[in-house]
Design a protein that fits this description.
SH3 type barrels; seven-stranded antiparallel β-sheet; globular; mainly beta
Length: about 475
């Protein structure tokens, strides 16, 4: 009898045991994965390292981890190449208390513990390397004797890490840094976006129905899903901000879940969302910056999850950028089949369209200048030379090249609509891009001083001309890069 009972118990447990063995998982990670039947059709793509694993299905790969017993399962899809990318199989190996994710011998990403998750500390992609240096936010990138600094506020945690969007060359790092500054004034114009993996203000209508979703704030705009994209009013909708069309119609830029593998950004009429009250959008800066595709790229309406390319653009294509999403994407205006579409393009694939240098204004800057008043917009001391280079005279190793171009107020980047724009390209890859104006200031003794001011979309800082002999010499670098 006991033998028969034991045999029956074994039969009852067989499906669970077989599933667990097919995954090859153990411990808290096994418990967390087994608690969610969405992963029943997945298999393990690599050995488990600590409480981290890679799971795969026919169309989908996911990096999974738990931080301890009874902790929620954390799933990161952007951390991996997907099956449609046709890459080598992913491999996880232990690295101290962290892990290394690798694809063959020439591509690897090293992560160290960071709170309940992990943070990228190094990457190797062929001859290109990234190494976290100095603080949790700055990488030194090298390739074929070239180098540049790659800065991400708060570091590249798994929540921010995208294997597809990470720069893969020093050239891409420098281009990314320029685009970040070129669109700096539009970093907040997607409204209720916070520095989190789930932007938007949660809204739950709790009323059955659907609302058509457009790719731009217009009923004439392109629609995803073969022209049938819509959102259910019986689920979660995240509202990023309001956009007011020329005819006065208020549109909502929303994000919603299509499936466990796909989200979508799009536009719906505010009047069609049950119970929604318009709050007004005057506080959001409006920008319209001309940009050019530097290398072939794919625009997406799902930057946070699948990153599925809805529209491919070739190098040289010109667009208008109207905002940024986090540190990675520009929101750009384009057309698909002759219909307007506002989609997301990786910053690293774009470059700003800039005018010719204004030689007489560059010559006017030649000399030494000291930060005088206002907010910090660049270094405390700047010296401009006739050959188009600049440096910090207090620390001459800190410098690069400068350019002054005419500024078009229609871009909406600077509150004072200056005539010019100053771009500083530092040798280490850092970038300063500000509005530039000239004027005079009165010293404490009544002396009239020549000055210029640098501005962004909300503030500015002034500089006065000084003799270089007045500049202190520092033993270590000081003064910020604006």
């Amino acid at each position: 009898m006991k033998r028969n009972l034991a045999f029956l118990l074994a039969l009852l447990l067989l499906p669970t045991c077989a599933l667990a063995n097919s995954w090859g998982l153990k411990g808290d990670l096994l418990t967390a994965v087994m608690a969610d039947d969405r992963w029943d059709d997945y298999t393990s793509a690599s050995d488990q390292v600590g409480n981290v694993c890679v799971m795969t299905s026919r169309y989908h790969n996911a990096l999974m981890l738990v931080s301890g017993r009874n902790a929620p399962l954390q799933v990161y899809t952007r951390a991996l190449w997907q099956p449609t990318d046709h890459r080598d199989d992913p491999k996880l190996t232990r690295a101290g208390n962290g892990f290394v994710l690798s694809y063959g011998k020439n591509e690897s990403y090293t992560f160290a513990p960071c709170g309940d998750s992990f943070m990228l500390t190094a990457a190797k992609i062929g001859d290109f390397t990234m190494t976290l240096t100095g603080n949790d936010s700055t990488f030194t990138c090298t390739e074929d004797g070239q180098s540049a600094e790659y800065y991400i506020h708060g570091g590249v945690t798994l929540e921010k890490f995208s294997i597809r969007l990470l720069p893969r060359s020093v050239e891409e790092v420098r281009r990314f840094n320029v685009m970040r500054r070129a669109l700096d004034s539009g970093s907040d114009n997607l409204g209720w976006y916070e520095d989190s993996p789930n932007p938007g203000r949660l809204y739950i209508p709790k009323k059955k129905g659907t609302i058509p979703v457009y790719g731009a704030p217009s009923e004439n705009a392109w629609r995803a899903s073969s022209g049938k994209a819509s959102v259910s009013t019986n689920g979660e909708i995240y509202v990023l901000r309001e956009w007011v069309a020329e005819d006065g119609t208020v549109w909502l830029h929303i994000r919603y879940e299509v499936s466990q593998r796909t989200h979508r950004f799009g536009f719906i009429k505010a009047s069609q969302l049950p119970g929604y009250k318009v709050v007004g959008s005057d506080a959001y800066p409006q920008i319209a910056v001309p940009v050019r595709v530097a290398e072939m790229t794919a625009l997406t309406d799902d930057p946070l999850l699948s990153q599925y390319g809805q529209h491919v653009l070739l190098p040289g294509t010109e667009l208008t950028a109207i905002g940024m999403l986090g540190d990675e994407y520009a929101l750009v205006q384009t057309e698909i089949s002759g219909k307007p579409a506002w989609l997301f393009a990786p910053l690293k694939d774009l470059t700003p369209v800039m005018g010719e240098p204004v030689a007489e204004i560059m010559a006017r800057l030649v000399g030494c200048w000291e930060f005088w008043a206002g907010g910090s917009m660049s270094l405390d001391y700047l010296r401009f030379d006739p050959d188009g280079t600049f440096c910090n005279p207090a620390w001459p190793a800190q410098g690069g090249t400068y350019t002054v171009t005419a500024y078009d107020a229609a871009q909406g980047k600077y509150w004072d609509n200056p005539d010019y724009e100053l771009t500083l390209l530092y040798d280490d890859g850092a970038v300063t891009m500000r509005g530039l104006s000239f004027g005079t200031e009165t010293d404490f003794d009544g002396t009239l001083m020549e000055c210029f001011s640098l501005t962004n979309w909300e503030g500015g800082g002034g500089y006065v001309r000084i003799d270089e002999t007045e500049v202190p010499r520092w033993d270590t670098p000081d003064g910020g890069v604006g």
